[in-house]
Amino acid sequence: xxxxxxxxVIIGGGFGGLYAARELRRAPVRVTVIDHHNHHLFQPLLxxxxxxxxxPGEIAEPIRHILxxxxxxxxxxxxxxxIDVTARQVKLSNHEEVPYDYLIVATGVTHSYFGHNEWAEVxxxxxxxxxxxxxxxxxxLAFEKAEWEPDPKRRRALxxxVIIGGGPTGVELAGTMSExxxxxxxxxxxxxxxxxxxxxxxxxxxxxxxxxxxxxxxxAKKQLEKLGVEVxxxxxxxxxxxxxxLIGQERIETENIFWAAGVAASPLGATLGVPLDRNGRVxxxxxxxxxxxxxxxxxxxxAAVTDAEGKKVPGVAPAAIQMxxxxxxxxxADLKGLPRKPFIYKDKGKLATIGRxxxxxxxxxxxxxxxxxxxxxxxxxxxxxxGFDNRLLVLFQWAWAYLGLNRSTRLITYYETQYExxxxxxKII
Length: 429
What we know:
- By secondary structure, the protein is α/β, with parallel strands linked by helices.
- It folds into 2 domains: about 5-35 and about 80-110 and about 265-335, FAD/NAD(P)-binding domain (3-Layer(bba) Sandwich), CATH 3.50.50.60; about 115-260 and about 350-420, FAD/NAD(P)-binding domain.
- The protein has helices at about 15-25, 45-50, 65, 130-145, 150-160, 170-185, 215-225, 315-335, 370-385, 390-405, and strands spanning about 5-10, 30-35, 40, 60, 75, 80-85, 90, 95-100, 100-105, 110, 160-165, 200, 230, 240, 245, 250-255, 255-260, 265, 280-285, 290, 295-300, 305, 350-355, 360-365, 365-370.
- A 6-stranded mixed sheet has the order 5-2-1-9-21-20, with helices on one face. Strands 13-12-11-17 form a 4-stranded parallel sheet.
- Helix 1 runs parallel beside helix 8 and helix 4 runs antiparallel to helix 5 (about 150-160).
- It is elongated, with a radius of gyration of 23 Å.
């Protein structure tokens, strides 16, 4: 690969970054993809790992493997800590600096606890494989402990699961967790009754899935309740501590708290020296570049982009894919001496799954829920899986879980013995 070619650096191996790299596969450039993980993660299926339906390897693919056939592309495992737009350099945590001619920043978002970062240890969110594995560990371990817990009060707390946040992540996690707990896990435990399990979904706004049409939000609420989830809207959490969630003067005793209430933009956006919106996302120009630096593009969840109707483009995979491809095409237009084109978001609809054959779909003129929405969700998300082998494997796993009510990936990979209520040996399934 000639070092005289323009160097395009892409930070982030998510949907936006990978599709940008793929779009540049035949361009006369050198491409370097930098990520602090060695894998691309299919985030929409994280909740299936968290509830023991899929294993981590089924929703992740090594970035090097995905891009192995692109001769003009290299992959670097490293943590980016800053960007010097004046010197056109990316700063790494090992004090190295990577120069670039063009830069695409696609580092996404992380959890936001609204100023209460101390809640993070008690209430993990769901953004990474590590998060999913930790939630799975806590979820499964709660049943193991409850099986032999003699104290009724602590037993109730162990079998109470509280999910904070009624957006797509919270709805998916609550619905699937309730279904798995009541219909699958209880079959393996001799001393736990399905009626003793509580799954509570808390949402601060008047309805769950607030970004969806009101009729679909109501449908989602009813489907959740049919699965046994206690849905509480207009409910704002005022405190979280080990063993309890506080809502004003009310105290919910629980050993299982999961966070799905908010996200914050990657702090890397703040190092670009350009305006940010109130959520920390980078204000970009119509071509997705930043002010005074046309060689720098920001895409995906990190970019504050407005659509033709004046609404913010949502932080979903289709939007990131479209932005990644568009930024790459504008780079190629520069190289050919052609004018850049403005980014126009094509909304392909919103889908959220709730449980087995339960989902909602907003496809513009078409809105529906239930089995057909679930099938649409399945087809769309399997289609977007990066690796072809993964598509077939995940589809098979889902079909098996759906037909047989089976959750085979029930592994507890780390066990804190100091929290065991009795000296009896731990059963791991």
